[in-house]
Write a structure and sequence with these properties.
By secondary structure, the protein is mainly alpha-helical. It has twelve helices and three strands, in the order H-H-E-H-H-E-E-H-H-H-H-H-H-H-H. It has a three-stranded antiparallel sheet. The two termini are 30 Å apart. 34% of the residues are buried.
Length: 233
């Protein structure tokens, strides 16, 4: 959502959130809402709304007579898409990308195997359409077009698994894929082998070949980790 769409508190969040996740305000730091309101030139009610959002992400804790305290990193909601976006924008990007990609490598192959067993005909058709869209945008430095189909592909895999816990990771995977593109942790054109693997995964899911779908998806995630070794060591 754009800053404009979220109003004044969105403008505050777009500055304060990245600052907290980047460590500019270390855990235990106490922020005063009245001082922050003056700094951002907003009302206290706007500042309170921004703090409520940060509290919902477990980044801060607000207490009367104490102020707003930055919580330990271990308590943050690291699965929140906005928190992921902020962390990927910071200096800790390589470690964050690797952590998220390892998560993908643990979840997505299993999800693909389940999708081969449970995907509906409509989901199979959508998966094939996404894979063909990736092929169509895989040349000519069309990474934004490629990204749209790539995100959609992995959302379908996670949803088609039939496991609601996997399905809820769709936003997490979307942020990882978007972050790689936005921060140029991608080659100018996607790896042709990776593109082909996505097409083959769609085929395996459509054919109900769970073992092949899982194996091919694991190859995709292993390839993503190899790319990080080169582009974000």
């Amino acid at each position: 959502m754009s800053t404009t769409g979220r109003g004044l508190h969105g403008r505050v969040l777009d500055t304060l959130g990245p600052a907290i996740t980047a460590g500019e305000y270390p855990p235990g730091s106490v922020l005063r809402t009245d001082e922050l309101a003056q700094r951002f030139e907003v009302s206290r009610s706007v500042m309170r709304e921004a703090v409520r959002v940060l509290e919902s992400m477990h980044l801060v804790q607000s207490r009367r007579r104490v102020g707003v305290t930055v919580r330990p990193t271990a308590e943050w909601n690291v699965y929140d898409p906005q928190v992921i976006r902020w962390r990927l924008a910071g200096a800790d990007r390589p470690r964050q990308l690797r952590s998220l990609t390892v998560l993908r490598s643990a979840v997505e192959p299993v999800a693909a195997g389940l999708a081969a067993r449970h995907a509906s005909p409509e989901q199979c058709a959508e998966l094939t359409e996404c894979a063909l869209g990736m092929v169509a945008n895989s040349r000519g430095h069309r990474l934004q077009g490629y990204l749209v189909h790539d995100i959609a592909f992995h959302r379908v895999i996670l949803t088609a698994s039939g496991n609601e816990m996997f399905a809820r990771l769709g936003d997490v995977v979307a942020e990882v894929l978007a972050g790689r593109t936005e921060h140029e942790v991608m080659f100018e054109d996607p790896d042709p082998a990776a593109v082909t693997l996505h097409v083959q995964v769609a085929e395996a899911v459509r054919e109900g070949d769970a073992e092949r779908a899982e194996r091919l998806t694991r190859e995709i995630t292993v390839g993503a980790l190899r790319e990080l070794d080169v582009l974000a060591p």
